[in-house]
């Protein structure tokens, strides 16, 4: 609970105004204490390695003294570390020994925003051996315990952090964050900055360059942006060389140990019962994965028909499925939901959001990740893949942002911060690089049961009768699937209301091997599909 920053004057010192901007920006996050340490990483004499100034008060109350201290001691080649403290509810009133930077001369310097779990801290070393009363010191202790390997140190710790630590023995500076804010900036001719706020770095940048944007030209004169979560940036203080490393966070839970690797792998599919999601599930099943289907009843006009299709697919593949009833979440005036709104998705607005349902795929993604997390916590699964049919080229072209590549990226970001098991799950857009036409060709080669799918916004279906749904021929979903089947030259055995139109002649198509090459799959799985190890499921269907 503080604002931290660092400036390494690798090439030039800053002005008083620029240091003031950095300190004022840090003070926005903490006004109970301020500390500044200036380090000379190149000095040979330990007693002159660093000098500090600390106050149990805000920076604003001690502004003049601190700026004078910086003007006296900060110079080219030196490093300034600073912290503006906010006293957390879990700690007593702030005293001087709680003001960072933590200085363990001549080895370590640390500023830390966040909190380390007390039970983990107690495991590291006896309470009477701590240099300060701060849990922050556990970062240094874990680092030493793990042989000065920062990745291993952070994978052992639990809590939250954004910190900057200098190890003078290794002449290495570490900047690391879990999910707390930490930004960095480099300006050619000046040096390297780290700060809790990227907006503050932007202000400093403007005073030097009269610019604010992140990066200029191919060879950057400067950059500034937030560091990604669960990331370590190691900077060699002799060469300036940097390395970026990812680490797996540790979370505590009464029934699950994140340090236990776990076992077992499953694939969860958001399955509407349509061709895209059905084929996604089919491919994983053919490859021998343990799959589980998840369907959503959200009040859609195609609800009964889609649930029938999911049930048929599950029976054919001999897999389990779960149905979420999420209709109360969806009250928007969508043509897919409201009986008094005509379905016109197959008209001139086909490539638009004309059939939008408010937040649908975002809500679906959140729910399936919650279900996946529950399974991981219960069964300690090592890995879970989540996939869906909405991520492929034809849907992306349609104009729906929640069918896009960016949306898939956003899901993989959300799982890291909305779920403590995020490191064990991943959203894989299996068909991301295929068109619907290529899906028909691939599905046909894999004997996919197109005839039990429902890709239609407004099908006709009476679940009390022993019959299959009848697809309309006017909505966008049906038209695209008909067009794709015709272009692929694949016989379409689905039932339709009225005569099925022919919308295209067959077109030249890539080979099945080339289509398989573009699936988002490990290379060994692609080779399995190409090698014909897909016969078992086809035999099951015929028998």
Give the helix level as a range of percent.
25-40%
| Overall structural domain count | 2
Mean of pLDDT: 92
Beta-strand residue fraction: 15-25%
Number of helices: 16
CATH topology of the largest domain: Rossmann fold
CATH top level label of the largest domain: Alpha Beta
What is the overall silhouette?
A: elongated
CATH architecture of the largest domain: 3-Layer(aba) Sandwich
Q: What is the C-alpha radius of gyration, as a whole number of Å?
A: 29 Å
Strand order within the widest beta sheet:
3-2-4-1-10-9-11
Determine the CATH superfamily of the largest domain: HUPs
What does it look like?
There is one protein chain. The protein is an alpha+beta fold. Helix content is 31%, strand content 21%. It contains 16 helices and 20 strands. It has helices at residues 16-27, 63-73, 118-124, 137-145, 150-156, 198-209, 275-286, 303-317, 360-379, 393-397, 405-417, 436-445, 476-488, 512-517, 523-530, 535-542, and strands at 2-8, 33-39, 50-55, 79-85, 102-104, 108-116, 159-167, 172-177, 183-187, 191-195, 222-226, 231-236, 242-246, 252-253, 256-257, 265-270, 291-297, 320-325, 383-388, 425-427. A seven-stranded antiparallel sheet has the order 3-2-4-1-10-9-11, with helices on one face. The protein has a six-stranded antiparallel sheet with strand order 5-6-7-8-12-13, covered by helices on one side. Strands 18-17-16-19-20 form a five-stranded parallel sheet, sandwiched between helices.
